[in-house]
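Is this the right way to post structure tokens for a design question? Let me know if I should format differently. Anyway, here goes:
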């Protein structure tokens, strides 16, 4: 009975496998952030006398005093969280079902034994982007064994096939990561922007004639501190997530490079022409 093999990704399939659109995620995050700001943070019980113009009595009220910058930072924070969850599942699917290191080791062992059918069966079982690229290389490997070409040309054909398959898969692995990287800087800058606005408000309260307006002063300090904290948290989370997902992509890229080298090296050592 013929073994079912993992199909190689085509350009058409590559378009279908696109992940979640960052634009849609940002719009949804903005709506959620605005709802949270106005329907949760602005609740009367979060302020003295039930009036948002008075002093806050808890953390939620303090966050509301952060001003219009708070929903913007919350939008960035929610965007990072949603995109991180999406990338986590997308990269795990691209890695395949089994351990990636074991997969590479076993396929290399099959190549050394000349058992191409077993290597293809492992690709079908592993699935994912890495297995699809390796499977493309194995198919080209078998095809070159029947072609009347110089040995060097066959090796170049195998390399070209792996590079083409990688070029089709790699963009889907890196999707949305530039957005996360941008937010790592933008979140911190928005926090700094909110801090400056809060300090301006505080100095305005101090500069008024007569007694210091304690309410205005506290509002300005709250705005500065809340925006600083939210901006730092957003930037820190973005940096951590970007580093984590970049590391996972690097591991998969290393596995692809290792398999490409193993395929060409094995062909060069086991074939005279």
């Amino acid at each position: 009975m013929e073994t079912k093999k993992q199909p190689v990704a085509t350009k058409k399939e590559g378009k279908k496998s696109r992940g979640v659109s960052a634009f849609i995620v940002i719009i949804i995050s903005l709506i959620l952030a605005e709802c949270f700001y106005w329907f949760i943070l602005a609740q009367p019980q979060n302020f003295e006398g039930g009036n948002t113009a008075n002093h806050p009595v808890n953390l939620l009220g303090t966050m509301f005093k952060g001003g219009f910058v708070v929903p913007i930072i919350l939008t960035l924070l929610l965007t990072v969280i949603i995109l991180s969850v999406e990338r986590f599942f997308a990269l795990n699917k691209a890695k395949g079902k089994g351990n990636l290191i074991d997969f590479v080791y076993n396929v290399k062992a099959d190549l050394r034994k000349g058992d191409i059918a077993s290597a293809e069966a492992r690709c079908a079982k592993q699935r994912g982007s890495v297995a699809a690229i390796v499977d493309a290389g194995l198919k080209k490997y078998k095809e070159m064994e029947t072609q009347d070409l110089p040995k060097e040309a066959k090796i170049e054909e195998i390399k070209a096939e792996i590079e083409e398959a990688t070029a089709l898969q790699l963009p889907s692995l890196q999707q949305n990561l530039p957005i996360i990287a941008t937010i790592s800087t933008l979140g911190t800058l928005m926090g700094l922007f909110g801090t400056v606005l809060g300090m301006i408000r505080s100095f305005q309260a101090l500069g008024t004639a007569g007694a210091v307006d304690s309410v205005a002063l506290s509002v300005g300090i709250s705005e500065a501190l809340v925006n600083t904290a939210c901006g730092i948290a957003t930037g820190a989370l973005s940096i951590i997530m970007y580093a984590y997902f970049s590391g996972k992509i690097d591991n998969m890229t290393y596995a692809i490079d290792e398999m490409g080298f193993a395929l060409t090296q094995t062909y060069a050592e086991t074939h005279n022409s």
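Format looks fine. Someone answered above. Worth noting: The chain has one domain: 21-270. The CA atoms of residues 198 and 220 lie 4 Å apart.
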